[in-house]
Design goal:
The chain is of the alpha/beta class. It has 15 helices and 20 strands. The strands form 5 sheets. The protein has an 8-stranded mixed beta sheet with strand order 13-12-9-14-17-18-19-20, with helices on both faces. A hairpin with a 2-residue loop joins strand 10 and strand 11. Helix 1 runs parallel beside helix 2. The N terminus and C terminus are likely disordered. The structure holds ligand PMT. The site of ligand PMT has 28 residues, from helix 10, helix 12 and strand 17.
C-alpha cells in the first residue's frame, strides 16, 4: 500500500478522489486541540455516505465531548468508560476492529503514536488497533518540537515500516504560538488521503460490467414473481471494482439501494430487460460479473388486468428466460466471465457444474441455505472456483467479500488471454451522464 510520507505531502494533489460510500471508517480521537477539526471530518465522511464509528481516548474528551461525535456520526461513541457496556454502544472493541474497513486516528498525539509503536493496549483505542487487520492511518497533531523530537521520529519510522500510514502533519502556526511542522491535516486533506486507501488500482482502465439484484417477472399489473436478492452483493462488487480503478457499468434489477456514485447505472426490471441491457454493451467489456438473481422463468404472458379470485386454484404457465451469462460466455470474443451459484445444498458440485456448463472463467458458490448470509443480509461467504483453482472467502461483510473477490478476479484476469476486440475504453463519467 502506498503511504504518504510524514514530512512531505505536496503530491497529495496528484491523488484521485474515490468515494467512501459504504466504507466502514473507525475514527480514533486522541488528545489534542485539533480534535475540533475531526468533528468536521466526521460530517464530511457521513456526507460521503461512509459509516463512521468513533473511539475517543480519555484525554480526547478534555477537548471535545463524545456527544458531538455521536450527533455527527449517528452512532454511539466508544470510550474507555463504556468498554464493559456493549449494549450501550452496540459493539465491543473486537467487533469494532473487525467491522472497520480502515482506521484513522485524527488527531494522533505523540503519546498515541508512542503507544502504538510499543504495542500498548491499555485503552480502547490502542486495543482496537492491535486487534484489527484493517489499514491504520495516523494524522499527527502536536507541537513542532514534539514532532521533531527523535523519539517521535523514530516511532514514526517504526510504524511506517510496519505498514501504518501517516497523513501529514502540515506546517504552519500552531495553537501554542509556535510555527513549524505538527499541524493536523485539514479535514478535506484527510478525506482525500483516506479515500485513496481504497484505490487498489488492480483493474485500472478495465471495463467491468456487473449485474445485481433480482428480476421481476410480471403476472398481471399488480403481481410479479421475484426473489429475495437485495442487490447488496452486486453493488458491493461494483464499488470494489470501481475502487480497483475499473470503468464500471452496473445493471441492476429493482432494489432499494441508492445508485452508487461515479458508476454507470442502468436500471432494469425483468430478465429480458437485463439481457437486452447486457447485450447492448457487452462488446466493450473486458470483465462480466453476473451477481444478479435472474428469474429462470417468467409467465408466458402478463395479464392486462388484475387477476380476480374466481377459482380455488390458479395455474400460471411459465417459459424459460434467456440465460444471460451463458449467452455472454458464448460470444466469439468473450470477456472474462464470472458467475455466481446460489445453492442450498451440494454447493461445490453444483458450482463446478455451472462453471463448466455455462463455460465460465470463474464461479462464486454462494450457500444460501443459511438465512443469515447470502440473500438480503449484510454478510456473505463464498467458495470461488476456476479451472484448477479454488479459494474460500470466509464470512464477512459484503463490502469486504467483494473486495477480496475483485482481488481474485484481477489476479485471474491478469493471467488470461485478453479479448482482442476491446479497443474503445469509454469514459465512465461521460457514460454515467447519459444513463443516470
Ligand atoms: O443481492 P443480495 O441480497 O446481496 O444476495 C446476493 C446473492 C445471493 C443474490 C448473490 O450472491 C448470488 O448468489 N447471485 C446469483 C443468484 C443466482 O441466480 O444464482 P443461479 O445459480 O440461479 O444462477 C447462476 C448464474 O447464472 C448466476 O451468475 C446468475 O446471475 C446467472 N443467470 C441465471 C439465470 C439466468 N436466466 N441468467 C443468468 O445470467
Amino acid at each position: 500500500m502506498q503511504g504518504i510520507k510524514p514530512a512531505s505531502h505536496p503530491y497529495l494533489l496528484e491523488l484521485v478522489t474515490m468515494s467512501l460510500a459504504n466504507k466502514n471508517i473507525l475514527l480514533g480521537i486522541s488528545g489534542g486541540i485539533a480534535a475540533y477539526k475531526s468533528a468536521e471530518l466526521v460530517r464530511e465522511l457521513v456526507r460521503d455516505n461512509a459509516s463512521v464509528r468513533v473511539v475517543m481516548t480519555r484525554s480526547a474528551k478534555e477537548f471535545i465531548t463524545p456527544l458531538t461525535f455521536q450527533a455527527l456520526s449517528g452512532n454511539p461513541v466508544l470510550t474507555d468508560e463504556f468498554e464493559q457496556s456493549e449494549s450501550a454502544n452496540g459493539m465491543d472493541h473486537i467487533a469494532m476492529a473487525r467491522w472497520a474497513d480502515a482506521i484513522l486516528i485524527a488527531p494522533a498525539s505523540a503519546n498515541t503514536i508512542a503507544k502504538l509503536t510499543h504495542g500498548g493496549a491499555d485503552d480502547l483505542l490502542s486495543t482496537t488497533c492491535l486487534a484489527s487487520k484493517a489499514p491504520i492511518a495516523l494524522a499527527p497533531a502536536m507541537n513542532q518540537a514534539m514532532w521533531a523530537n527523535s523519539a517521535t521520529q523514530d516511532n514514526v519510522e517504526i510504524l511506517s515500516k510496519r505498514g501504518l500510514l501517516f497523513f501529514g502533519p502540515a506546517a504552519g502556526s500552531q495553537a501554542c504560538g509556535d510555527v513549524g511542522e505538527g499541524r493536523m491535516f485539514e479535514p478535506h486533506q484527510l478525506l482525500l488521503s483516506l479515500s485513496n486507501l481504497f484505490n487498489t488500482g488492480e483493474l485500472t482502465g478495465i471495463n467491468v460490467m456487473v449485474t445485481a439484484g433480482p428480476t421481476r417477472e410480471p403476472i398481471d399489473p399488480v403481481r410479479y414473481i421475484s426473489n429475495h436478492s437485495s442487490g447488496r452483493m452486486g453493488y458491493a462488487i461494483a464499488e470494489a471494482a470501481h475502487d480497483a480503478g475499473a470503468n464500471v457499468q452496473l445493471i441492476s434489477g429493482p432494489v432499494s439501494l441508492a445508485a452508487p456514485e461515479d458508476i454507470e447505472y442502468i436500471s432494469v426490471s425483468t430478465a429480458q430487460e437485463m439481457f437486452d441491457a447486457v447485450q447492448a454493451d457487452i462488446e466493450t467489456q473486458q470483465i462480466f460479473i453476473s451477481c444478479a438473481a435472474v428469474a429462470d422463468y417468467r409467465p408466458v404472458a402478463k395479464q392486462p388486468e388484475k387477476i380476480k379470485k374466481l377459482h380455488d386454484g390458479l395455474t400460471v404457465e411459465m417459459v424459460r428466460n434467456p440465460d444471460i451469462i451463458a449467452e455472454v460466455a458464448k460470444l466469439k470474443s468473450k470477456p472474462f466471465v464470472v458467475g455466481f451459484a446460489a445453492e442450498t445444498r451440494e454447493l461445490k458440485k453444483y458450482a463446478l457444474q455451472k462453471l463448466e456448463r455455462k463455460r465460465l472463467d470463474m464461479i462464486a458458490g454462494n450457500d444460501v441455505s443459511d438465512t443469515n448470509i447470502g440473500f438480503d443480509s449484510p454478510e456473505n461467504a463464498l467458495e470461488v472456483f476456476w479451472a484448477g483453482g479454488h479459494c474460500s472467502l470466509e464470512r464477512d461483510t459484503k463490502t469486504k467479500i467483494a473486495r477480496r473477490l475483485i482481488g481474485l478476479i484481477a489476479e485471474r484476469y491478469a493471467n488470461t488471454d485478453k479479448r482482442s476486440n476491446v479497443t474503445v475504453l469509454k469514459n465512465a463519467k461521460d457514460r454515467s451522464q447519459n444513463t443516470r
